[in-house]
């Protein structure tokens, strides 16, 4: 289960959670500031943000829901230039610290010998689609987008 909370906004105005459906189409998910998704299915994957009546918007988050066994742990929120970020490759069903290869935009990046890597000193060039593949057991994660900078 996941919850999306429009926090950090002040005043009595109504905030609602919006989901992007297509290029120009969005869907109003809830009229309150918290959206609960329980249980989560693949179809809940997508880009979400908070929006006020007057059109003011938060930055967006990308949520990827998979029915597979392998999960890439990656920040869902935009990260700032200069940050160090950790990526992890996990199996849903068993705790693991197996070696995993990490890829960015389809290109091999680095092997994490205990399923984790750190990307130091983030810059705009680190933005892109990441995935991980367990070296021994084949399982691979879906791709997730990393955003640098925010809006
Ligand atoms: C959402 O965030 C607000 C403000 O930070 C907090 O008061 C509230 O308890 C949160 N709600 C949930 C369901 O996490
Ligand atoms: C999306 O909106 C833009 C500008 O409003 C328009 O030019 C474009 O054709 C629209 N695209 C679709 C798929 O409706
Ligand atoms: C979400 O993913 C799309 C590509 O799938 C990307 O264009 C967009 O910038 C991403 N947004 C965030 C906040 O990561
Ligand atoms: C981080 O990267 C910036 C430019 O990309 C560079 O100027 C700076 O020295 C780097 N910092 C560290 C601690 O490596």
Automatic annotation (TrEMBL):
Gene Ontology molecular function: transmembrane signaling receptor activity
Keyword set, alphabetical order: Disulfide bond, Signal
GO CC annotation terms, alphabetical: external side of plasma membrane
Transmembrane segments: none
Gene Ontology process terms (BP): cell surface receptor signaling pathway; immune response
Record keyword Oxidoreductase present: no
SMART domains per the UniProt record, alphabetical: IG
InterPro entries reported in the protein's UniProt record: Ig-like_dom (IPR007110), Ig-like_dom_sf (IPR036179), Ig-like_fold (IPR013783), Ig_Fc_receptor (IPR050488), Ig_sub (IPR003599)
Positions of the Ig-like domain: 68-147
Name of the protein: Ig-like domain-containing protein
Provenance organism: Astatotilapia calliptera (Eastern happy)
């Amino acid at each position: 289960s996941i919850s999306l909370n429009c926090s950090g906004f002040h005043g009595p105005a109504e905030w609602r959670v919006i989901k992007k459906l297509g290029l120009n189409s969005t869907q109003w998910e809830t009229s309150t500031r918290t959206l609960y998704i329980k249980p989560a299915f693949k179809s809940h994957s997508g880009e979400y943000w908070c929006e006020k009546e007057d059109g003011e918007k938060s930055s967006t988050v990308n949520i990827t829901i998979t029915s597979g066994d392998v999960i890439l742990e990656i920040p869902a929120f935009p990260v700032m230039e200069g940050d160090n970020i950790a990526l992890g490759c996990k199996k849903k069903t068993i705790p693991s610290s197996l070696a995993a290869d990490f890829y960015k935009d389809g290109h091999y990046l680095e092997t994490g010998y205990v399923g984790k890597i750190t990307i130091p000193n983030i810059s705009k060039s680190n933005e892109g689609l990441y995935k991980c593949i367990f070296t021994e057991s084949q399982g691979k994660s879906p791709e997730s987008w990393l955003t640098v900078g925010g809006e």
